[in-house]
Amino acid sequence: MSEPLRISFLGLGVMGYPMAGYLARAGHDVCVYNRTTAKADQWLSEFEGRAAPTPAEAAADAEIVFTCVGNDDDVRAVILQEQGVLPAISQGAVIVDHTTASASLAREIYKSAGDKNVGFLDAPLSGGQAGAESGQLTIMVGGDPDQYERVLPVMDSYAKACTLVGSVGSGQLAKMVNQICIAGVVQGLSEAIHFAKRAELDVSKVIGAISKGAAQSWQMENRWETMVADEFEFGFAVEWMRKDLKIALEEAGRNGAKLEMTELVDSYYADVEKLGGSRWDTSSLIKRLEP
To answer: Do both 210 and 140 map to the same domain?
Structure first.
């Protein structure tokens, strides 16, 4: 447990809402901001804390400001714009961005924050909504070690694992690696289940056998049943996965990495969107094979 701190949390989506709740339960003085004020009001009905009408007002007296929003544009809006965090935050505070965004934006904010003697960490998440609700997230962090050590006891309230990967931007790059891996695993699992069904095998018995061996994965353990049942109205949305893969592919264009499989799976997710599945879970790749 960390000492109680003045903390602001900006972005009460499916991830941020429970994460901010864990901070309140840990005894911190939590101020929340959400673009839709009704969500902030709902949060206040469940947790101890207060709400601010703008990111700037939320950040004004905070020791740590957490952000968890949608994309690069949203991060810029809540941190860099006139009513954002950076113009209002006090010297010596630290900003922790949990958004999955670009490494280049993380470096830009780090420099701007440093000019004001404010710390900055890029700290994207893995574990999805279920991980956020259970306080079992994995966090990949980029930034300075002293700022990381300062924030780590606070992040531990909603994380099962935190890793300082390297300098600023490294957290976002690690998240790109994570999403590249997931894309390949989900496509492989989709084809495997499709093949098993066409071969008239008992899918439950097959999964029971291979999930104890080298083919085992989180996706297999947690998604095969819903994939077989054609259930996808939950989980991490296809449109968000495509956003993440776009970031990875753009970074690959800069560093020269060959992401042939990732490009292909991204095109498959585009097919799923054409089927009306923008908000379906990423395991819906199997819908291309069994529409």
So the answer is: no
Say yes or no: 192 and 261 in one domain: yes
Domain membership of residue 1 (yes or no) is no
* Same domain? 136 vs 183: no
pLDDT in tens, 135-178: 999 999 999 999 999 999 999 999 999 999 999 999 999 999 99
Q: What is the 3-state secondary structure (H, E, C) of the chain?
A: CCCCCEEEEECCCCCHHHHHHHHHHCCCEEEEECCCHHHHHHHHHHCCCEECCCHHHHHCCCCEEEECCCCHHHHHHHHCCCCCHHHHCCCCCEEEECCCCCHHHHHHHHHHHHHCCCEEEECCEECHHHHHHHCCEEEEEECCHHHHHHHHHHHCCCEEEEEEEECCCHHHHHHHHHHHHHHHHHHHHHHHHHHHHHCCCCHHHHHHHHCCCCCCCHHHHHHHHHHHCCCCCCCCEHHHHHHHHHHHHHHHHHHCCCCHHHHHHHHHHHHHHHCCCCCCEHHHHHHHCCC
Active-site position among 39, 111, 160, 175: 175
- The verdict on pTM exceeding 0.90 is yes
175 is catalytic: yes
